[in-house]
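Problem statement: downstream parser choked on a complex file, so we are re-checking the raw output for the iron/sulfur cluster run. The parser issue turned out to be on our end (a line-ending mismatch), but while we're here, posting the original submission so the record is complete.
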Amino acid sequence: MTMDRPLLEVKALGIHLLTYEGRARTINGVDLSIARGESVALVGETGCGKSVTAKAIMGLLPPNAEVVSGSVSFKGRDLLRLPEPEIRAIRGRQIAMVFQDPSTALNPVFTVGEQLGDVIVWQGAARAYPRRRGGDIRARSIELLRLVRIPDPEGMLNRYPVELSGGMRQRVLIALALAGRPELLIADELGTALDVSVQDQILGELTELVRSQGLSVLYITHNLGVARMVSGRIYVMYGGEIAEVAPTAEMFRMQHHPYSQGLLAAVPRLTGTIGSGIEGRIPDYIAPPPGCRFAPRCFARMEVCDRQPPPVVEIEPGRKVACHLYGGYPGGG
Ligand code: SF4
């Protein structure tokens, strides 16, 4: 039944990046799904492949990227194989991205109203609506600014980005992403450039907005604390692979993968202390470790980890972990 089909389903995605140093095997068999109305977080350190995965979903991979396997299905259609005009009709409209740096993502020479108006007209033209009149555009712009809780939305239309605080600019970017009435939002490190208190406030507001509008969201973040605040399910990514997936509450109750345990240890505590985190660096994607990509950094590493990629094991319904500790090897669980 189509009703049960996830809104977005990434299957066995493999992406190589062609660099001067050689072929980087960056994304290696990623599976990820998002149901309608679900908020999912993709968590991992910088360089672990989160943003490349998001770009593949948005169809914004750089020219040196080569998709070597898998599919990215949105409402049952594989975005990696659709003709360009059909992709364009989906990207930015049914799937929209909230950009992370409000100081650079807005055009400084146009007012907020002009930038919102442009996007609204573009959306209307793309959907072959009758040409919108100026009043319609203004009314829709004000409606969008209200949705993201901008005080005095009428006044905001005439202001330039430079006149706004970082938090207000971030809200305008969210309004721009919502202009096409998307079904799926991708938020890449949302609010990272802002003060922590402003980031918390915006994340809280977005979570409420997402719920009230019935949207689905993929949050990309390096911060498990942020993932806890905004998502119902967490994918932990390491070295271009999914290390562990679990409902958010379960992930915080217990982490099975040694990398998830290390990430959680690095979340700042209320006491102000920061845990020890994880020693070492992300793998070299040109010559990744032949077995488990996390092996060089793993405290629980076994002999098998160096020669064989770990199996993905379903520990309980909805919880999966890619680790030999759970694969039935001697010394494993
Ligand atoms: Fe550690 Fe081995 Fe599990 Fe990889 S497979 S995370 S090296 S125990």
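For whoever reads this later: The longest helix spans residues 196-213.
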